[in-house]
Specification:
- This protein is mostly helical.
- The chain has 5 helices and 2 strands, in the order αααββαα.
- The chain folds into 3 domains: 65 residues; 52 residues; 51 residues.
- Helices cover 73% and strands 2% of the residues.
- A two-stranded antiparallel sheet has the order 1-2.
- A hairpin with an 8-residue loop joins β1 and β2.
- α1 packs antiparallel against α2.
- The relative contact order is 0.04.
């Protein structure tokens, strides 16, 4: 027979008593704060109950939390028959637990564990990569981009200078055309005067 503290009724009674004791402490505190009659007795009863329970919790070893019932529903129930995950527990079923189903489920778990091992291996490979030179490479790229930006600025300035030069050449050409026209008029007038 299992120890008394491992039985389900004891666990329920323990949780119930802790909840009720905490409620009494809360009500006692409320009564005390509001200065209502009986506050002293209620808070004392609640605190004594909680002190006893906390002492017991310190003495009783903690329950191990097994989550097998998520994989095999009904495993915690002695009367349940274990069936595939999709079927869940069936109480009083005449069909015995199927060894092939359990074996299949274990094979599925093994496959998943192998997949996880491969994923962990990939993470381990990333851990082994040497990133020590990355900082130098980033500095070199930053230097390259800075120089490229400077060159683009100079090129842009050069384009602006070229536009100004083109405008000046166009103005000079216009002035030369006007000057040629004036010179042509002077020559015509000179020829007319010489005749």
């Amino acid at each position: 027979m299992a120890a008394i503290y491992k039985q389900n009724w004891f666990k329920y009674a323990k949780n119930f008593t802790i909840g009720v004791g905490a409620s009494i402490v809360m009500l006692g505190a409320l009564y005390k704060i509001m200065s209502w009659e009986g506050g002293d007795a209620m808070i004392t009863a609640g605190l004594v109950t909680e002190a006893i329970l906390f002492a017991l919790l310190g003495i009783i070893p903690p329950d191990k939390d097994y989550y097998w019932d998520k994989l095999y529903p009904g495993l915690g129930d002695a009367e349940a028959k274990i069936h595939p995950l999709t079927e869940g527990p069936v109480k009083g079923a005449s069909r015995p637990a199927n060894g092939e189903v359990v074996e299949g489920q274990l094979a599925g778990m093994l496959t998943e564990l192998q997949g996880m091992a491969k994923s962990l291996g990939s993470l381990k490979a990333l851990q082994d990569v040497d990133f020590s030179k990355t900082s130098d490479q980033m500095k070199a790229m930053n230097n390259f981009y800075t120089r490229m930006t400077d060159a683009m600025s100079e090129l842009n300035a050069s384009v602006e200078d070229t536009k100004k030069y083109k405008d000046q050449v166009a103005q000079l050409n216009k002035n030369l055309t006007n000057l040629n026209s004036v010179y042509g008029n002077i020559l015509s007038a000179y020829k007319t005067m010489g005749n």
